[in-house]
Specification:
Number of helices: 8
Largest sheet: 7 strands, parallel
Helix content: 25-40%
Shape: globular
Distance between the termini: 33 Å
Strand content: 25-35%
Order of helices and strands: EHEEEHEHEHEHEEEHEHH
Bound molecules: NADP nicotinamide-adenine-dinucleotide phosphate
Structural class: alpha/beta
Radius of gyration: 18 Å
Number of strands: 11
């Protein structure tokens, strides 16, 4: 029997980190070995906690799962390279330098970054690209709604959907970001033509969706060589329409 993959949860006291600690603890083929957050103040889970400033002191791990803040990414990437560990990251709001750092690290270790770890959103992206190809003269609007505490706008998912529109050859998408209440995440891609409108909508109602997706991606990444991967790679050929 294979040894369970050892997981480091980065951003463990946050909304996503807490879901990962709860769901990850129930998986027999995964083992949580350490938690990192900004201040190192323990927030549950039967495992050692470390402040971001002390990240070099974490015990050995195979995969880091990161849902934190953009400024935490570079130290984590450096650690993953030194420990030859893989990285699954869902942190959004990355700047160009941080995205380049992900690419550079992926030459040495396996890295999977996704703006949205839900299976439904991955399928939405594929559908949007096909719709954009067929309706290339139509106006395109992307409307996204997230809870009031979300810092970045447009959301990382909205940016990926805009890229899917562009990839299909559609007109540049206009972004509309709403921040209100406790909405987990909703994305509507609206194609408007003369006398008709097509709306493709995804609604996440439970944050566990993203945590389950990140755990799914971690299992898949555990067997991959160095490289930069997308959630679509983990989902396989069916999604790509091969
Ligand atoms: N890709 C997806 O599917 C997906 C889904 C949901 C959210 N997200 C993204 O994931 C990120 C986290 O979301 P959230 O809602 O969980 O945020 P959150 O509740 O604000 O939690 C942020 C976490 O990051 C920690 N942190 C802050 N600075 C850090 C640093 N320098 N190094 C390490 N950890 C640090 C915080 O620790 P302290 O408490 O000590 O500050 C906290 O544990 C955001 O970028 C969000 O947009 C992505």
């Amino acid at each position: 029997m294979n040894m369970p993959a050892r997981l480091l949860i980065h951003g463990a006291s946050g909304r996503m980190g807490q879901a990962l600690l709860r769901l990850g603890a129930a998986e027999a083929d995964l083992r949580l070995v350490a938690a990192v957050n900004g201040d190192g103040q323990a927030a549950g889970g039967h495992l050692p906690w470390f402040a971001a400033a002390d990240i070099e002191q974490v015990p050995d791990f195979d995969i880091a799962i990161d849902f934190s803040r953009p400024e935490g990414l570079l130290p984590l990437l450096a650690l993953c390279r030194r420990r030859q560990a893989r990285l699954v990251s869902g942190t959004t709001g990355l700047d160009a330098g941080q995205r380049e750092a992900l690419t550079a690290a992926s030459k040495h270790v396996a890295v999977l970054w996704a703006a949205n770890f839900s299976l439904g959103v991955a399928v939405l992206g594929a559908l949007v690209e096909r719709a954009a190809a067929a309706l290339s003269a139509w106006d395109v609007d992307i409307v996204e709604l997230h809870h009031a505490g979300k810092r970045d706008a447009p959301s990382g998912t909205a940016l990926r959907l805009a890229a899917a529109v562009a990839g299909g050859g559609g007109r540049p998408a206009v972004q509309h970001s709403l921040r209100a209440g406790d909405a987990v995440g909703e994305h509507c891609v609206q194609f408007s033509g003369a006398g008709e409108r097509l709306e493709l909508i995804h609604r996440a109602t439970d944050r566990d969706v993203f945590a389950r997706g990140a755990l799914f991606a971690s299992r898949w990444l555990a067997a991959q060589p160095a490289g930069l991967y997308r959630l679509e790679d983990a989902l396989g050929a069916a999604l790509r329409g091969d």
